[in-house]
Each structure stands twice: as structure tokens, then as C-alpha cells.
């Protein structure tokens, strides 16, 4: 009979806020830890060439990408032939597919196009469709990733420090594709 | 550590280097299993909870904690692995793991080693005969541009700490809050990535005093981007940086 | 035709039931909370990580949004006039649940919108205003969703206590009806944009079921049931009688009213199809035991609406919905019963006083009013008391205007075995609180004090 609406409201608010914060706090706050993935290490006896840095012959690439999904690799030029020498011809066009990476909205996967070992484009091969939010993320992540990759390359960059925050899923898929392409 | 690691290795041939790369990848996974804050079964988590004694841990735990202690001393307390009672060497462990992996490959006889762990880069040797390493530093405010390019030969480590990647993930150990009036990102260039990572973390937490502190650290240079787009760099940084390139394609 | 109606026809004198009916309220509340837990589980299972400040914001926004969506369906279902809720839990209690949950829902809705928009703006590195416009204008179903949210917030504001007092009842009521449109409009963006529903057929089906169920309840109990009721019973005003200054009884004639299943102590929502009265539906308790041909309500003519009731002409058609309310005989668990009425709150208690199964001496009515003249229905009460061997006491203000206090001592003086009674209360909030406290102090446990209060 005797009601204390104010106390009830305060209790309700406190319970709701702390409940939401607790739920969020209980979730991991970093991207999933890398699982042991394809540590593909092509052996090569070619001496380093002096063309564009990433097209150099004796490059060896290994990556600890996210969830192993190596089956998605489609290297048209045979870029990743395990144990075979790899000589890059400047005109060769190559498309490499990255790993499928799970995000909140579903799987994402990117494909990289390289001409003569240089990145010319990044496209989303898989992005969760039907949800405009994920499409929006793809719409800015992909061009941004492309620009970043091309910018880094056009400056003859060996590595980039301070990775920018795009959608982590797309970045991971791109990285795995680049690793697979062998630069 | 939840990061993508990539390796770029130049070598003459043989199986020693590929094997070293495999071992280096494995070492990163081991480091993740030992040091992850997010795995309740990691040795670090168990150590922090008191369920495991330091002597029972992998010897690398003691090594990393010793390095943390050294970093705390070198940074006048600005780097801290002991904030809020927990045990959190995160600010250093990635750099340490990447550096260790890179040195494993270099020791196997590679000409050039570049290991990039989520934007913290350790480079050893040279990319091609006669060419220097070039490492781009992303502009935290203009995501499609590089703020600057660092150049160097031989041993080079570049670590960046800031708000750009994951929101505020560096806290001032004295207040337990994100640093006020600080840069959006601080990049430290030195020879060892263990040092670069710890110093970048500390310098970011220091805020406005970071520049003066970095000037006094021997063999290290710093570069920072502020929230208003203003940048500063230590006096020796120009030697490591190429002509400032704004590579925006916007 | 003039009829003196005193409900003799349905008087009962059977032995009192000694087992009170159990309220389904705990079960219903448990179901509602279990549903909320399931909604949180949906978020939990579909979320892998929470990254950075923007991740926290979007995560909080999503949780708030899911809970808002769930609560909207529950709020609609609560107000669907489901008999189990209206008659067994009690309309007043359900209305209080609705009001409380409504405030909570509107707050969560604001949290949802703010957190998601700020979080998205941070993710996209675009200014909040631009991000908001983008989301509202270009995301599918978001124009509808935004409109729904605006209506819900407006209703929330108008329902807030401070504003509610300054808004006409009709304005508030019709704005409230708009919430059906708002909930309908907001429904679509939940499925087309909710990350938790993307590619999750089971979750989508459950959501459709939840909303379909709520809509079905409304359609059945708020639309079809009243239509059938009024088509079957054809209610009309028979006569209007003045009982006390500003208090009028309205006698309503209908067909086969026994089928209505109304019990003494219950009320119906009445809409008199005459002049401005037709736009308002108002709850009035039956002030006499229901009869197969007649129902009687007693109304205090205070505001514009109830004053117009006094002017009703015989033959006016009446649209009624009900019966509702849980202030009925089956809540009682003891042989002896004390009824405490204040002012026009006498109406349901008058019906109970007449019909509660009781032996002589088991039934006592305490009736408080401003002055002897205001003791509406007093003659009837005295007659019933005489016939049933019941007692009726009145408490009126003293000559100096002082109120007759209801205290534990006063109750013990009148009824030395007060602690062995069930008590039914009906009247203004102040009297109810005072009587409740006095009864508790006199040793009557709370579960044996039955009351109905529509102050939220």
C-alpha cells in the first residue's frame, strides 16, 4: 500500500544501468586471439631483385591471421606455390582472396587485385548482406583499406605503424590476402 | 594479443630461415597463451589471481616482468604494469614478443626481417641491398594518409600508441584515466621494439610532458599528432624521417 | 416504468469460502522477466567482442534497443484487457505495472537512440548530426522507426506525473492510443536493422510471435470482445437518480446480463453515446449486485464528464467494456469481513456488502464522508444491514471540519477481533493509506487487506 515510487525508480535505473554495463564488461574487449594459421613459408633461392620492394623475389611471407580458412585462397598466377621458386613478372595480374573473418554481422572476406605485384584494388567478396549497417561499414572500410594499401605501397613503405581503426574484420581479411599474395 | 602479425623476410635460401619463421610464429602464439589478459587460463591471469607462483610460470614471465620494472624505472613511473592491483604488462609484451620473433629469424641468417604486430614494427637488416627501411606512420586524424615516414638501416623499431586504434586504451597510471590534453598518437623510434612499445605507452600517458622526456632518452626519437592536427617531433627525429609526405588521396 | 432496484435477486447467503484464490501475478511477472532474460541471451550469443568506446556505446544501445522492443510488446499485452490480468491480478495493479514499465521503456528508448547514434558516429568518424540524418533518412525502416520513437517519447512526457496533471484526460487518452501506431511503426526497423536478427531465423520467428501475440490479444480483447458484448447485451440508460449532493446513480438496462459474468466489486468501462460523453470511456464500479436485466453505477459529479452523467436521458445507448477488477468476494480468506469506504468509494463495497456470503455479525461496513448528507446510498446500506444482521458505521467530519481519523485503536474499539478479519478498502488515496496503516497496526496481515487504487 505504501509505495515509494522514487526509491523504485532509483532501484530500477540502477539495476538496468549496472546490468547493461555488466553484460558489456563480461564480453572480451579485444579482437579474437589469433589461432595458428597457415604459416606458409615458400623456400626460394632467387636473389633479391631491385624492383619495387614488395615484388622482390626472395620474399618469404608468413602470417598468423585470424581463424584459419586457408581454403579461400585463389591465386591465379600461382603466387603461393609451396616450395617453388617465385619470379614476379611485372605484367602479371593476380587476385588473392583473404580469409573469411567473423564479425558481429556475419562473415566478411576481401579480395585483392595486384598487377605486377602492386595492389590496384581491394573488393569485398563477402560482406553480410541484408543489413544496412554492415553494408555501410563495408562501404567505407573497403575504399579506405584500398587507399591505405595503395598509399603505403606508392611511398615504397615496408610496414605501417599505428594501424588505423577500420573494421577489424576487413583489415584482418586484407592482411591475410596480402600475406598470401606474397607482396 | 588479438592482432594480425605479418612477416616480411628476405633470405638467401636454405631451410634455416623458413624454419625460424615457423618457430617465430609459434613463439607468438605461445606468448599470447602465456600473457593474454583475456584468457582466464593464461599464466598471467593465473599469476595475477594468485593461483600460480612466479617460479612456476614460464621463465619468460619473469623476464617480461623484469623488463616492465626496468621500463617503469626508465619512464619515471609513467609505464606501469601494476595499475589497479591487476598485472598488466600489455604495454610492453607485444613489442617484446615481436622483437623476439624478429631476432629469431635474423639469427637464422635472413638478410632482412620485418615483423609487424598490429602496427608495432621491428626491422632488422635491410629490405634490399643498399636500401633503407621505410616505415609509414598513419595519421590518426586522416585515415587514408600517412603522417610521416620513418627511415633507417639496420635495427629499427617503430611503435605507436594512441587513441586511434581502439578508443582510449592507454590510461595514466597515476590517475587511472585517459590522459588529458595529450596527443592522439605518439610514435617512438628506437632500436628495440620492447623499448619502443613501453616508451610509446608511457609517452602517450604523459601528455604534454612527453616531448621533453623523449628528448632526454638516448637513442630514441618521438613523433606525435595532437587532436587539432598539430604535430611535434623530437630534435633528432628528422634524421629518421623522410621528407614529410602527405600521401592522402582524398 | 419505475424500478426500485436493490439487487435482492442475486443475494447469496452460502457458507463463506475459506480458501482465497491465488493471484497469478507472480507467475506472470516471472514469465515477463524470463522473456527479458531470453532477449539478453540473444544479445549475448550473437556478440563476440566489445571493442573500444564506440563498441561499448553501440553494445549498450543494442541491449537497450532489444529490451525496448521487448518491453513495447509486453506493455501492449498488459493493456489488452486480458481477463486473467484484469480480473485476477487486478486492473489497478496491471495499470501500475504498465505505468512503471512504460517509464522504464521510454528511458531505455532514449538510451538506445543516443548510444547507437553516438557509437555509429564514432565508428564512422562523422559528426553526430550527419550520422543521425544518414541513419534516419537512409537506413531502411528508420523513418518509421524515428516517427515511432518520437511518438513514444511524447507519450512518455505527457504521462509523466507533472505534465499529466495539466493535460486533459481525453488528450492523454488519445495520445496513448497513438502508441499502438508508434509500436507498429518501430517494429520494422528492429528486424531489418537489428544485428541480432540478421540471419537468425529463430530469433525473427520469436519476435514475430511476440508482437503477433500482443496484437492478437489487443484485437481479441479490446476490439472483438467489446463488440460482441455490446451487440449481445444492448445497454441503455434506464433512469438517473440523485443519491446525495453531486452523487447520482445510473440504472442501465440490458439483455441477458447474467451472461456478462460480472461480480459485485467489479467495474466496467462506460461510454454513454450522448453528446461529448461519447468520446470518453470511464470506469465506474457496479454499486449494486448485477441483475439479469439491470446494472447500476453510482457516480460523483465532480468534473465535466461525471457532471454530464447526471444529465443523461433515459434511453441513451451505452457502450460498455468489462467486467474488470479483482476487488471481489473470492479474495477473502476469513469468515469475518470489514469493509471501509470513503466517499463515492462506497460503490463497489455497497455491492459486496449486499452479497458477500456472511452470517449475521460477520460483516461490518465503515463509511466515511465529509458530512451526513454526503453519505450516498445510506438508506440502502441501513436496510441491507438490518436484513443481514450486519453492522454499518459512519464517520463524518466534526462540526469544526476535522476528519474522523481511522486508527488502530478506533478499529479495535469497534471490532475487538479485528485481527481475524479480511478488509476491503475503497476510497480516496489518503483514506486508503490511513486505513491500511491502521489495519496493519491492528494486526491484519497485508495479504488480507484488499483494495483497488487507480492513482498511479
Structural class of chain A: alpha+beta
Query: Count of DSSP helices of chain C?
Result: 13
Which pair has the most extensive contact?
A-B, 54 and 68 residues
Taken in chain order, the helices and strands of chain A follow as HEEEEEHEH
What is the fold-level CATH name, i.e. the topology of chain A? Sufe protein. Chain: A
User: What integer value in Å does the Rg of chain C equal?
Assistant: 26 Å
State the share of residues found in helices of chain C, binned by percent: 40-55%
Total strands of chain A: 6
> What general form of chain C does the structure show?
elongated
Average of the residue pLDDT scores of chain A: 58
User: Number of helix segments of chain A?
Assistant: 3
| Low-confidence region ranges of chain C | 1-16
Explain the overall architecture.
With 183 residues, chain A is of the alpha+beta class. Chain A has helices at 5-26, 132-154, 168-181, and strands at residues 59-64, 93-97, 101-103, 106-115, 118-126, 159-161. In chain A, strands 2, 3, 4 and 5 form a four-stranded antiparallel sheet that branches. Chain B is an alpha+beta fold. Chain B has a single domain (5-233), classed as ApbE-like domains (T-fold, Roll), CATH 3.10.520. Chain B has helices spanning 16-35, 43-49, 59-74, 90-107, 193-206, 210-216, 237-240; strands at 5-10, 112-117, 120-125, 133-138, 146-152, 156-162, 185-190, 221-225, 231-233. In chain B, the strands form two sheets. Chain B has a seven-stranded antiparallel sheet with strand order 1-2-3-6-7-8-9. Chain B has a two-stranded antiparallel sheet with strand order 4-5. Mean pLDDT of chain B is 78; it is low at 164-169 and 242-250. With 456 residues, chain C is α/β, with parallel strands linked by helices. The chains are: A alpha+beta (183), B alpha+beta (250), C alpha/beta (456). Chain B binds chain C through residues 143, 166-169, and chain C through 51-55, 122, 125. Strand 1 of chain A pairs antiparallel with strand 1 of chain B, so a sheet runs across the interface. Chain B: This is FAD:protein FMN transferase.
